[in-house]
Amino acid sequence: MAAAIEKLPQLKSATDGLNEMSENERSGFINLVSRYLSGEAQHIEWSKIQTPTDEIVVPYDKMANVSEDASETKYLLDKLVVLKLNGGLGTTMGCTGPKSVIEVRDGLTFLDLIVIQIEVCRFFVSFVLILMPLHNLIYRFPPQNLNNKYGCKVPLVLMNSFNTHDDTQKIVEKYTNSNVDIHTFNQSKYPRVVADEFVPWPSKGKTDKDGWYPPGHGDVFPSLMNSGKLDAFLSQGKEYVFVANSDNLGAIVDLKILKHLIQNKNEYCMEVTPKTLADVKGGTLISYEGKVQLLEIAQVPDEHVNEFKSIEKFKIFNTNNLWVNLKAIKKLVEADALKMEIIPNPKEVDGVKVLQLETAAGAAIRFFDNAIGVNVPRSRFLPVKATSDLLLVQSDLYTLVDGFVTRNKARTNPTNPAIELGPEFKKVASFLSRFKSIPSIVELDSLKVSGDVWFGSGVVLKGKVSVKANSGTKLEIPDNSVVENKDINGPEDL
Asked: What's the CATH architecture for 2-380?
């Protein structure tokens, strides 16, 4: 690290020569590198960690309801901006272009569903209809067109990366006639650093996209301001932005949360939800030295990692659904006060070891006044990160109405089935080709599939199911099969 510090002037000089960067990007990049080289880190004293009270992490069902008065709904909506993090590519699922244009269900992409949700917009409110077991309550208004009914416009903002910008600009043209104003801006573009020389890779001749990286979603705050969008929304009377990952199908507008934030003058709110065994590595909220903050597994001393993963002690995790006051963002960015923990991400690209430094938006919570968490129903966290998640949302476990994915109330188990698909199913095209139709999984507990396996139409899976095709063998599950609590290793097991 000391040797790298000596190379900082050289790094700055090389960065000044990169014409692809704006002044804001240069400043942000050098600031991030300087902080990293200084060894700046927040050391957590484990004994000081406290479990947040209900005043700090508010139970969702204790929040005040939104009235049925249309004027209150309009009042709240007029203060809101919806921002989706749209910088990711679909490469992990074998797709090119932005992940948000992968078809999720019924021929609709993530972006289609997001636009429909805002255009039609059903909201979580607590006085309508219980559709789920207590662990997964869903409450909703009937679908309503915001513009026609309330005379308001909730803008949709997409934060792209340089990887997704061009494709997204073309894609949003199809929504020209929708009732949603769509805005886009790019997050910062930083150069990857050659690890052994500590110089920007583009200055060494790597001028294509692989020489650069987007520095994590913590960059949303300065980039929103640098784009000019923040000031524009403030001038329109907007007060809060709802930030969420574009691949989280459960991250819909919730007026109950927005009302609480406005009434209590909370500058920042992180939605958390109860942990399951699948979420043990997720960041959690803690009380630390009188403030609420995010604790990530990377900050946990080795001797306490198992304790961190415990569902008994740390019962909630971060969904990355965030509600943030726009004026507070402006104030903190102008003061250069958002110094989130730096996440070093070493990679090897084209045989070269490079380093990229990133930050996470959730870590900003400790810099905002009167920041809180809200413990929301699990239904607000429905990410699609892999084809195993795609299987869940395309199955009869969920229904799709007006852009909203709702869990089937026939499912009595409050948790979803554990799905593990082999590499043959990793890419979306391969995944879809291997199912004549998506199996019924309402009564499924777990599914593990490996090898050259193909599913017929009308298949029903129940309990614990394992399907393994031996090397060189093609294994087909016949049409209309009902497979329950079974290990299938060959045709003789069917």
From this structure: Alpha-Beta Complex (3.90)
